[in-house]
Design brief:
The complex is a heterodimer of chains A (844) and B (359). With 844 residues, chain A is an alpha/beta fold. Helix content of chain A is 32%, strand content 20%. Among the domains of chain A are: 12-127, Rossmann fold (3-Layer(aba) Sandwich), CATH 3.40.50.20; 148-211, Dna Ligase, domain 1 (2-Layer Sandwich), CATH 3.30.1490.20; 225-335, ATP-grasp fold, B domain (D-amino Acid Aminotransferase, Chain A, domain 1, 2-Layer Sandwich), CATH 3.30.470; 530-661, Rossmann fold; 676-807, no CATH class. Chain A is globular. Chain B folds into two domains: 2-147, 3-Layer(bba) Sandwich (Glucose Oxidase, domain 1); 152-357, Rossmann fold. The model of chain B has no long low-confidence stretch (mean pLDDT 96). The chains are: A alpha/beta (844), B alpha/beta (359).
Chain lengths: 844, 359
């Protein structure tokens, strides 16, 4: 009865990558592709990847042949023919890949040969899923509860629909372009502008109008299905904030805590029905709106492809979702899925259970923008404003929440109990109704001022559960404030996830004395495994998070381990690149046969993938968190990004062997208008500097000059902190790309800085040398003869000079409504590569 | 107030007391499900037991009348990691804490439940007690305690009652049933008579049932009187029969199979269960301390219909000669996945066939 989508034999598989990063597209798709490539390679398939994101790890995988090209129908088609591709995977690259694949399928001519099959979803289903109206009809006809929407092509039709459906309405684009939004219309006079704006986001100038369901609870569910129709639930997530606030901008909690079992069971059965309806193999994310009091559930989004929920669910449950999905797509029955890397053999078919709570906190760019003097609209709504997120793990909601907040690396002031004390009662009410970032702090302030829980729940449409939880957090903070230096209070505070730094601030002391008090009273973290069986079976666990309980499950990995400290959440101007760097570093350490321990809290990159390191700590990266892991693991060396100066100092004070990856504290920078920033890039092995090449950064574009005569610059007297990649930089009034610069200019007005990670990623692709690997080898004193030969020849071997890196066109107007233009050079959200001479067909 | 859970092997787990401040004794088991705390604590299969929950927080959904699986919980204790104070009851601001107080059941929270579960997974079920002081006296009391084996008697109805409907007449033999069974029968509009398990064969046949259900229930199936097995052996020849949970175990015993006590009981909803004939996989709530021993099945009389793919345990049996079958899992989905509801649909199809043939 069930048919595998892979009707034809599979030999050559092409992955369509996710393209540049931006709002809603971080590193999760690339990480998923990167994770499955070695497995497919191991199964004997020929694997190919196309992507134009220079930060894509999959392009550097040894298991696949990479095409570093703009993601266009034309390019993909060429690869299919040239590489004899019989099978395409579009679902791992996400929504954009699915759209490109559909466009290609439509464009395909008979004389092009047979159209490759698509894995996971049959070609006609891809088209169905891409078209919202068609998908909605499909679900409605199957009797599934969707909010019906109707299409309007003109303002008049929209007016007519408004009278029929009644306010409030939601307007979305039919056949949307990449950056699209949903607009809420609550007043008559808002309709016209909303329709105009959304029509502009539709490839067909059509809008979809439906009833607004603001205020309902929003739930995400991730399921998988095999070719026989066997379905399994992998994980759930609930948004603290109601529908009306974009799910990415909401605080989200896994597992779902506040929805009763029968409602979850119903959503599960809807998700399974949809999976069967689409005949999909692999994974499916369904987003629901639920109102228990009125016994209502709506299906609001169907994503049969890898997305942010998929990567978060994999992280918080410990279930290897990408690997399992890949096998299901290849036609393996659920009970036969084979898991590599000493996973429990039956884990794939057991629904993951959680005995911990994971809280995702969105990261907003407002602070970074304000620091740079840019004002934007901070009000949250149906348009995504967050640029990333962190995940906090704990045994209670409060503990997980505190750890997520700490992972977000707010400065100390922003989670101070007095942070919101200045706002007036009117403002407070206004913000309860018209939410901004800092939601949790606002709720805490409201509770402090004596607002009742049911009152707040009604105003904010947030479940009472969360207010009770925040109340208990206030009680703990108050107790800490009132009882300085008490060990029992310290234990309570640590159990609630408070950092040594915050407690120190309450007690007007420093974190060293907090650590002392903790050590005196044996208040030490107990690490718990992220174990999908919730304790039922002994798992070969590798992932841990700290709690303050009785049993510590983590034992020291070895006396030869290297701890790699990650870079946490994405921020504007510095998106996935920290994750890229950590991943390559881990990969190199493994190649050099070190045992590695990774520490990070970002669910949207590859750093925490189980096959990259021997052990992972899913933890905030404050000094106290890192110190605790160092105590536990006593590693041989610790790799830390150079911008963590306080941490580096604290670790060195403890006598630890700290290996610093040179990196500046991120500041929005770059050349000004009518200027170019020239950089002489060089590698320093700890003793000697080797000039590599010269790059020009201008107007959101970075390119490497074909110049090879670099000997004349004197790099001898530079004072460098340690091995790594650095650059000498200077600005010049040049607006055109140049082929050559006068090296004499470097003798004055230039300054030295570590090479930004993003430029290293580009350089690695442009030269075919993974430069982070050389940095690692230099830090460990393991540069070989081959490395030195390469360094000597580097200036003469600029391999892919026909490529440049350009900033992706992020629609800041749409997402952030800044006052004035936002310069993408300074506020980078994503980059892509392009041929040096842009051709006319190249478009986003 | 700080209280303790003590186990017969000498271990002590400390937490904060909630619910009733009572000192109780019972057998402790663990449950890894993430939802359905109210359904679970009111399920009579846990009569006389203490439940350690793996879910990180209990109480977050409040207490709902429709989530009860019996009129009142009869567990001896509830061990959770974190407790939420949410109440959804319009009249009484009832929450989990008050609910347990009302039935004089103690609870313990802020326990390292993960440590406890990992401990129980190795040790298997043990006698346990919730106490104020974990001293020698408390352990002496615990060791001296003899736990009851009369759980079925404690929870099953002593008197017959009806749940009238307009459909087929289904007799439920009550061994301590969970309400989910009645809800399933209600979905099929059945006319239901719930009878004590001590009812005579004659009385049952006088009711002329269209189908018979052997209900779920607590305790050790071997401790029930032989008369129950005789009753099953006779009734399975007279009308379609479905055994669930304890009912399944009794059905197996009545047909000559033996049961094996599990080294660690399984209470959860995450194991894949495969229907052998179709290879379809589904998930369902399970709560079992015993499984039917594969070696003891008389294959001339019965065959296996479902298996748990994790431990390969028998999850369903069917009689070759009669329209009688059984499932180990709880097919009613309260709490948990509802995919196994099809078991009841199968049963009603069997009932329809039977009625057609015998009219």
């Amino acid at each position: 009865m069930w048919n595998s989508t892979a009707k034809h034999p599979i030999k050559n598989i092409l992955f369509i990558g996710a393209g540049p990063n931006g709002f809603g597209v971080q590193g999760e798709n690339d990480a998923a592709i990167y994770q499955v490539l070695p497995e497919l390679h191991g199964l004997g398939y020929q694997v190919f990847v196309i992507d134009d994101n220079p930060y894509a790890l999959s392009l550097e995988s040894l298991a696949a042949q990479a095409f570093w090209q703009p993601l266009t129908v034309e390019n993909i088609k060429k690869i299919i023919i040239q590489a004899n591709i019989d099978t395409v995977v579009a679902t791992f690259g996400g929504r954009r890949s699915m759209q490109i694949w559909e466009a290609l399928a439509q464009d395909w001519q008979d004389d092009d040969g047979p159209l490759p099959q698509s894995l996971g979803l049959a070609n006609p289903v891809v088209a169905q899923v891409n078209n919202r109206a068609e998908l909605s009809t499909l679900l409605t006809e199957a009797g599934l509860p969707v909010i019906e929407s109707e299409v309007a092509a003109t303002q008049d039709e929209a007016n007519e629909l408004m009278r029929k459906i009644n306010l409030p309405l939601v307007i979305r684009a039919q056949n949307p372009i990449q950056s699209h939004t949903r607009q809420l219309v609550s007043r008559l006079d808002e309709l016209e502008q909303a329709v105009a704006e959304v029509r502009a986001q539709s490839l067909t100038a059509e809008v979809l109008i439906s009833k607004a369901i603001n205020g309902m609870k929003e739930i995400g569910m991730e399921v998988v299905r095999d070719f026989r129709g066997n379905c399994m639930q992998v994980g759930t997530s609930e948004d603290m904030d109601p529908i009306g606030i974009h799910s990415a901008d909401s605080l989200s909690v896994s597992p779902v805590l506040t929805v009763q079992d029968p409602f979850l069971a119903k959503m599960r059965s809807y998700a399974f029905q949809i999976a069967n309806l689409l005949q999909l193999e692999g994974l499916l994310h369904v987003q629901f709106a639920v109102d228990e009091a009125r016994d209502l559930i709506y299906i609001i989004k169907v994503s049969p492809y890898f997305d942010q929920l998929a990567s978060r669910v994999a992280m918080v449950t410990g279930y290897p979702l990408a690997l399992v999905s890949m096998q299901l797509m290849l036609g393996t029955p659920l009970e036969k899925v084979y898991l590599p890397h000493d996973f429990n053999e039956k884990m794939a078919m057991m629904e993951p259970m959680m005995d911990h709570i994971a809280v995702k906190l969105p990261i907003f760019p407002f602070g970074d923008l304000a620091a740079a003097g840019v004002k934007v609209n901070r009000q949250l709504g149906s348009i995504q404003k967050s640029v990333g997120g962190t995940v906090g793990f704990g045994r209670t909601f409060v503990e997980a929440l505190e750890k997520a907040i700490r992972s977000a690396h707010f400065n100390n002031r922003s989670f101070s109990p007095t942070y919101m004390a200045h706002i007036s009662d009117d403002e407070l009410i206004q913000q309860l109704i018209h939410p901004e970032d800092n939601r949790v702090l606002l709720f805490i302030e409201a509770l402090r001022r004596g607002y009742e829980v049911d009152e707040l729940a009604e105003l904010s449409h947030v479940d009472e559960f969360y207010f009770y939880q925040l109340q208990s957090l206030i009680e703990i903070e108050t107790a800490v404030e009132r009882h300085p230096d008490q060990a029992d209070i310290l234990l309570r505070a640590k159990r609630s996830g408070l950092s040594d730094g915050l407690i120190a601030r309450f007690w007007r002391t420093n974190f060293e004395s907090i650590r002392q008090l903790a050590t005196q009273h044996q208040i030490e973290p107990t690490y718990k495994a992220v174990d999908p069986s919730a304790g039922e079976f002994p798992e070969n666990a590798h992932q841990y998070y700290a709690s303050f309980e009785f049993e510590d499950e983590s034992t020291r990995l070895s006396d030869q381990s290297i701890l790699v400290v990650g870079s946490g959440a994405y921020r504007i101007g510095e998106t996935v690149i920290g994750g890229y760097a950590s991943t390559i570093i881990l990969s190199e350490l493994r190649r050099l046969q070190y045992q590695t321990v990774m520490m990070n809290n970002n669910s949207q990159d590859a750093t925490l993938l189980p096959h990259l390191s021997d052990k992972q700590y899913l933890e905030p990266l404050e000094i106290s968190d890192v110190m605790a892991v160092v105590d536990k693991e006593n590693p041989k060396a610790i790799m830390v990004p150079g911008n963590r100066r306080k941490l580096i100092r604290a670790l060195k004070d403890l006598g630890q062997n700290v290996l610093v990856i040179p990196k500046d504290k991120h500041l929005p920078g770059g050349p000004g208008e009518n200027q170019s920033e020239f950089a002489l890039n060089f590698f320093y092995d700890g003793q000697q500097a080797f000039a590599l090449n010269i790059s020009q950064h201008r107007d959101g574009e970075l390119r490497i000059l074909p110049q090879t005569d670099l000997d004349s610059v004197d790099l001898k007297d530079l004072s460098l902190p340690g091995p790594g990649l650095f650059q000498l930089v200077f600005h010049q009034q040049v607006t055109q790309p140049v082929a050559h610069v006068n090296l004499a200019d470097w003798q004055h007005d230039s300054w030295l800085r570590p090479m930004p990670f993003g430029q290293i990623a580009f350089l690695s692709k442009a030269t075919g040398v993974q430069w982070f690997r050389l940095v690692v080898r230099a830090l460990l004193g393991q540069l070989g003869e081959g490395d030195y030969r390469l360094l000597a020849e580097a200036p003469a071997c600029n391999v892919f000079l026909n490529q440049r890196m350009i900033n992706a066109r992020t629609d800041f107007q749409l997402h952030l409504q800044p006052e004035g233009d936002l310069d993408v050079t300074r506020f980078e959200m994503g980059v892509r590569v392009a041929p040096v001479e842009p051709r006319s067909h190249e478009s986003e | 107030m700080q209280r303790h859970l003590i186990l017969e092997d000498g271990s002590v787990f400390t937490g904060e007391g909630f619910g009733a401040p009572a000192t109780t004794f019972g057998e402790i088991i663990f449950d890894t499900a993430m939802t359905g705390y109210q359904e679970t604590i009111t399920n009579p299969i846990y009569d006389g037991q203490m439940i350690a929950f793996g879910m990180p927080v209990a109480g977050a959904n409040g207490i709902h009348a429709e989530a009860n699986e019996s009129m009142q919980p009869t567990i001896r204790g509830m061990i959770v990691h974190d407790l939420a104070e949410v109440s959804t009851n319009r009249q009484r601001r009832m929450n989990l804490d008050r609910f347990l107080k009302q039935y004089n059941i103690p609870g313990l929270y802020q326990v390292d439940t993960r440590q406890l579960i990992r401990h129980l997974r190795e040790s298997g079920p043990q006698r346990a007690s919730i106490v104020d002081y974990a001293d020698d006296h408390a352990f002496d009391q615990l060791i001296a305690t003899v736990l009851t084996n009369k759980q079925v008697k404690n929870t099953a109805t002593p008197k017959a009652y009806a749940n009238p409907g307009r459909g087929r007449h289904i007799v439920v033999i009550d061994f301590g049933l969970k309400h989910g069974i009645l809800r399933m029968l209600d979905d099929h509009e059945a006319n239901v008579s719930v009878l004590p398990y001590t009812t005579s064969i004659n009385e049952i046949l006088t009711l002329d049932p269209d189908g018979i259900i052997l209900s779920t229930g607590p305790g050790n199936p071997n401790s029930l009187p032989e008369s129950v097995l005789t009753l099953i052996r006779v009734l399975q020849t007279k009308a379609p029969m479905l055994g669930v949970g304890l009912g399944h175990e009794l059905f197996a015993l009545a047909n000559g199979a033996a049961l094996t006590a599990l080294p660690a009981e399984y209470h959860g909803m995450n194991h894949p269960i495969q229907e052998i004939i179709t290879q379809q996989i589904f998930y369902a709530m399970q709560g079992r301390g015993y499984v039917v021993d594969d070696q003891t099945i008389n294959h001339k009389k019965m065959f296996v219909t479902y298996r748990d793919l994790v431990d390969n345990s028998i999850q369903g049996l069917r009689h070759r000669d009669y329209p009688a079958f059984s499932v180990q899992l709880f097919a009613d989905g309260a709490p948990g996945p509802t995919e196994a509801n099809v078991v009841y649909s199968d049963f009603f199809e069997t009932v329809e066939d039977y009625v057609e043939q015998h009219s």
